[in-house]
Amino acid sequence: MSDGDRRPLASRDTGWARALARRVAATSITPNQISIAAMGFAALAGIGFWAAGGATGLGRAALLLLAAAGCQLRLICNLIDGMVAVEGGKGGPDGAFWNEAPDRVSDILVLVGMGLGVGIPALGWSAACLAVLTAYLREEGRSLGLAADYSGPMAKPQRMAVATGVAVLSLAEPLWGGQGEVQLFGLWIILIGAGWTCLRRARRILAGLNAR
Fold first, then answer.
1. Domain 3-210 is in which class?
2. How many CA atoms lie within 13 A of 42 on its CB side?
3. How far apart, in Å, are the Cα atoms of 176 and each of 171, 180, 188?
4. Which one of 6, 19, 135, 154 is most buried, by most CB atoms within 10 A?
5. What is the pLDDT of residues 99-154, one digit of tens each?
6. How far apart are CA 136 and CA 88, in angstroms?
């Protein structure tokens, strides 16, 4: 994986990320294992969102915190796997597969979990499909010789930021007697934003091809 193929992330240059990547690279843990762990954290987030839909009180709060933590730990794994592979020199010949496939599974786990949590599975699946399509369009453009397009407004970091914010803000719903409204609103934001992102990336692909 070259630097041109990597998502531009300011967090990659932070001290904590570099220190964590160095510590992990010094162990027997491989980048592929970190990518697989990201799916596990995404599964925890999806379960948290799903189960919180029918829970109350402290149990619901714990599930929402699990969802928020799962989303953020998924992102940390997605950050560190590439750093261990590239900066740590531990990348393997199958790294490109493990860098992409677990991300698509993770998006599905989180977003479908959100849809189940609000009792509208179709909404979660629709958001998941569009999330996967954003990645497909990026790779489609790259396969046609164009630069990888990581533009938003609802790329992976933004999707997980919204999902994390939804989990945290949902903790306050008992103050006004609500349950699930924040999660439903956030899921619609992700759905609409992902759709916009797909259209934007498609237009950029067409513009790039026609400019040749």
1. mainly alpha
2. 26
3. 11, 12, 21
4. 154
5. 899 999 999 999 999 999 999 999 999 999 999 999 999 999 999 999 999 999 99
6. 28
For residue 11, which of 65, 69, 105, 80 has the smallest C-alpha distance? 80
Q: Tell me, what amino acid is at 132? A: V
Contact 114, 163 (CB under 8 A): yes
Could you state, in order of their start, the residue ranges of all structural domains in the chain?
3-210
pTM of the model: 0.93
Q: What is the DSSP letter of 12?
A: G
Nearest by Cα to 113 from 188, 52, 162, 191: 52
Please say whether the beta carbons of 108 and 156 come within 8 A. Answer: no
